[in-house]
Amino acid sequence: MNVPWLTVVLLLPLAAAALLQVIPRTAVTLLKALTVTATAAAAAIVWTLVATMGGSPHSAGPLSFHYSEIHQWIPVIGATYHVGLDGISAWILALNAGVFVLGAILVSRRSTDRLKLFCGLLLLTETMTAGVLLSVDLLLFYLFWEGMLIPLYFLLANYGNENRGRATVKFIVYTVAGSLLMLVSILSLFFAHGVASGNLSFDLTQLLGGGLSKQPLVIPWVNITTFTPEQWAFLGFAAAFAIKIPLVPFHTWLPDLYESAPVAVLVFFAGLVSKLGAYSFIRFALTLFPDAVNTFKWVLAALAVVSIIYGALMALSQRDIKRIVAYSSLSHLGFIALGIFTLNVNGINGAVIQIVNHGIIIAALFIIVDIIEQRTGTRDRHELAGLERRMPWLYAFFLVATLAGLGMPGMNSFAGEFSIMLGAFQLHPAYAVLAGLGVVLACWYMLRLHQGVMHDPPQPRTEAVGDIRPAQGLVLLPLVGLMVFLGVFPGPVGDVTQLSVKQTTALAHGYASTAGPNFSGLGPVSPGGQP
Amino acid sequence: MTTSTVAVLSGLILLLPLAGALLNALVGWRLSRRVVNAIGTGSILAAFLVACVMLAQVVGAPDGAKSASAHLWQWLDLGTGGLRVGVDVTLDPLSAVMLMVITGVGLLIHVYSVGYMEHDRGIARFFSYMNLFIFSMLVLVLAADLLILIIGWALVALSSYLLIGFWYERPSAVVAARKAFITQVAGDVALVIAAFLIVVHIGTLSMPGIFAAAPSFASGGLLITVVCSLLAIGAFAKSAQFPLHTWLPDAMEGPTPVSALIHAATMVTAGVYLIARFHPLFDRAPVAQGMVACVGIGTAVMAGVIALSQVDIKRVIAYSTMSQIGLMIFAVGIGAYSAGMFHLATHAVFKALLFMAAGNVIHALHDEQDIRLMGGLSTNLRRTELCFLSGTFALAGIPLFAGFFSKEGLLGFGLTNGPGAFPWVLYLVGVGINVLTGLYAFRLWATVFRGEPQTARVYAAREAPRVMLVPVAILALLSAFLGLILGVWSLVIHDNFLIGVFARFLSPVFTTPASGPLAVDLSTGTAILAGIVGTLGSLLGAGLAARIWLQRNPDPSAVTARLPRALPQLAYNKFYFDEIYDALLVRPLVALARAARRVVEPRFMNSGVQTVSDACSELGAWVRDYQTGLIRDYASYMIAAAGVFVVATLVLVSR
């Protein structure tokens, strides 16, 4: 049977959102049930697809997909509905499906104002983010990329604490600015390709290798030589993705937004949306602009290392435990970005693995912080202490999440961070050594957070709290279980990602064939690009 | 010894403590204390039996087939040019020795804990952490892939962290736990970077692969020196060697059985194991070896001096541990791998014994640890004293006790096979350490058990219950006779006294000439002379200690008081290492973090963005004011705009 599963994955949450509109807003149970069922059904489909996708891709070409669907969309400009799932997007899509189930469950356990609106927006966001992960056509991708902001805006602006308005505007303005630069780059690619080949297309598989001039652009009259058009176009993409990831110094929307957002939004916002920048970097920026990527990788990797250390230092100096987690997220996203900019097999595989791992970890950490805030009424590190005796189960869950967060060997994030750091080491040992400093700092602030909240004699606010309810435990259990399981068996993730990463790496080095360059051994010099 | 046997036995020995840890962690709070104790100790007993079977497998294997590896599952495989790591285990004489030490001493300490932790309500948590520790340690010694070894290495640090901070409502314990863990993580990072260098150069992290490819490193070259130095830094962090040693004394905040198991017998000696395990690399890096040897002997001296000035019973033993591990590190640094491992084994026995006997004292005095408030305990704690004395003799290296054979062995090897032009110097320092060891070992015994009681509490002290005495007594017998038994055994089968049998057992692992059986060297005249001089040093120390402290009211600071004041001050304050680190590392980082939060983030990172975003909001608010919905307003805007347009056109055209 030939079911267009990818389209089903895209449309299912959208259809559920539409169905929600005919349910009266007073039928709270039905609203919740529908939202949870829809996200769970989408998750079931995605997880089955990922589990059965096997090793080698089904389509041919330098960038091939395990599942793909292609239809005409706007023939006059060559825009297509081209969606595809490969080893890189597979696990991230699985994460996507998972975090939305989590969000749906969390919102259904809390009495929320305007629940119907929330559920509808949540489902709409899921369609958009899945679209970002599945799009192969650049115009389609851009549509989803920007479309994602609409439900997110309403979610962030309507729910959360009193600072949400300012934080949301900052996020939207910042992101849209980056996205517009990307639109310019997409259009210039489109026209350059159209002029060079005589056929119009937004399809990534058609645009590979660019077609943009690699001659430096000279500003007339003043005679200043600037970057090449390819590099300018790359920088447009890079700006959009660097803001979304975010990389220091483009990160300032993140802590404010994370602090003000409600946990049901955070699980998918911090867990997934912020990783879309990293994913898109791998999917589009590396494959479309190999030369520019190789030129700029040193700077970008340096920015990533700065993000790691800067995020860690900021986390170290916060009192608000939610902001500590937010800045820890910045630091860890720096690791993911570092992995991408290494442009080698280890780094990029590590980045993909770490996207999945970090999504799990950060969702759990925000849920835990939320529980603590609910129980004690404070997020101030100095007012929290001694919860271990009162909340032994939360202590255990928090301990595992903390250890995973600090990159403990044996936990899931170690597999990702080790591969990333190995990749960075192959790029240049200094990057790995500096990232190692980030690991030590992570250990410091994460342990201080965990110990500060859990240990020492109790404070007035923590005297009389009770442990988590079984239902809360059931939400945390799968997350914590995955942290341990993927730490012991990271193999399945790597098996799926590695073939597609090989193709992308080959493209990033300018070899447009599946055979790819011969990576003999793990020599420190990666083929191509290294000066 | 087939691959499948190794796989099954390793799987079993790893799963048993893990199952115990999980059981006690998940359902321990519902079970009775008796069941919790049974799970906690039973899992280790079973693991010990498996370890015995594994040892028998190695002993029974024919020569040349003493080592076997098994592949359990593929951890990660990133394809061509990518990382490839298997969860592999190796059983060979070296890991067999470690298995016996870990599960054997571990079992006795678990039994002892049943008594020691009798009144603690967190017993399930305690045994869960202890079992987790044994599991981690087993991962560490069985691992046949460097990455898996790193996982075990870090898990060991984790369980140590959990156990140091076991009494989590004590702020000092919480801080000590964190300090220990962060130091360990710094060591982990060094190991990880060493792993990167190795995998980039050789292309594999599998340890048999690394050792086979060791000759591809240029001997004495920069690369191998850096790799070995990084490995050594990892080892120093774990084994509390200078300059990464400051966490160990603070780790005494944990319950005493923890100190015995983790901070004396097993975990802190993992650094010695690491260097011994990676000897094919170290053999090719003489500079790194020299560094290791010097750090080892330097730490031994420094810790010995500090031990002499401390007045907390556990801290004295902690520093003596640091000092003894310094000797082991020295041994593996000069290539005396078998001797180092032998000292590791005997030290595990007598140091665990000392800690547990000290635990009996602390228990009897209701958590008193200050030796100035003890004295005269021999009347009430006769049996404990006897055991403690056996440990003290072994520690001081009094002839025929276990420590004598191992310590003289490694010092003698140092004299005959030591590096370059310095064997004499290093050897003489070693003899000095012998004197020092005798001094602080007997000082502790004399001030705690001899003389007159210094407080009334001593009179009320009661001997420990049987469950705490029997494990101590077993270790006391071992520390008295282990060396003798092994010595006589080697005399019988190899007609060589001293450490022949042990070295021969390990010889398949340490095949390089420099590290072969020691008996050859020890039968020479120089070696015998070295042994005699070393022994005289130990006896001198012991005799001096007896003279100074065997009296009615011994003064623990008798020796240090005679030195110039600065020195004891320095020693008592641990040479101010904590303060130095605080000033050099902690404070600058905290200041940097604060500057980032107060200045960099608001002024440089956020101000521009925030301004733009606020401007957008304000622009929107401003424009909103003109959206009145009144036709007359919109009409006037249109007329005004049209007017501007006309004027602009006229101006442009007229130019």
Automatic annotation (TrEMBL), chain A:
Keyword Transmembrane helix: yes
Topology term for the membrane: Multi-pass membrane protein
InterPro entries documented for this protein: NADH_Q_OxRdtase_chainM/4 (IPR010227), NADH_UbQ_OxRdtase (IPR003918), ND/Mrp_TM (IPR001750)
GO MF annotations in UniProt: NADH dehydrogenase (ubiquinone) activity; NADH dehydrogenase activity; ubiquinone binding
Intracellular or extracellular location(s): Endomembrane system; Membrane
Membrane-spanning ranges: 6-23, 30-50, 88-108, 115-134, 140-159, 171-192, 232-251, 263-286, 298-317, 324-345, 351-372, 393-410, 430-447, 468-489
Protein name, UniProt field: NADH-quinone oxidoreductase subunit M
PANTHER family, per the entry: NADH-UBIQUINONE OXIDOREDUCTASE CHAIN 4
NCBIfam families from the UniProt entry: NDH_I_M
Keywords, comma-separated and alphabetical: Membrane, Transmembrane, Transmembrane helix
GO biological process: ATP synthesis coupled electron transport; electron transport coupled proton transport
Cellular component GO terms, alphabetical: endomembrane system; membrane
Family in the record: Belongs to the complex I subunit 4 family.
Pfam families registered for this protein in UniProt: Proton_antipo_M (PF00361)
Automatic annotation (TrEMBL), chain B:
Pfam families: Proton_antipo_M (PF00361), Proton_antipo_N (PF00662)
Gene field: nuoL
Organism name: Candidatus Amunia macphersoniae
TM region(s), chain numbering: 6-27, 39-59, 94-114, 126-144, 150-168, 189-211, 217-237, 258-276, 288-309, 316-338, 344-365, 386-405, 425-446, 467-491, 527-550, 634-653
Main location: membrane
Entry's localization field: Endomembrane system; Membrane
Protein name (Swiss-Prot/TrEMBL): NADH-quinone oxidoreductase subunit L
Keywords from the named record: Membrane, Transmembrane, Transmembrane helix
Ranges of residues in domain NADH:quinone oxidoreductase/Mrp antiporter transmembrane: 143-420
One GO cellular component term noted in the UniProt record for this chain: endomembrane system
NADH-Ubiquinone oxidoreductase (complex I) chain 5 N-terminal domain mapped to chain residues: 80-127
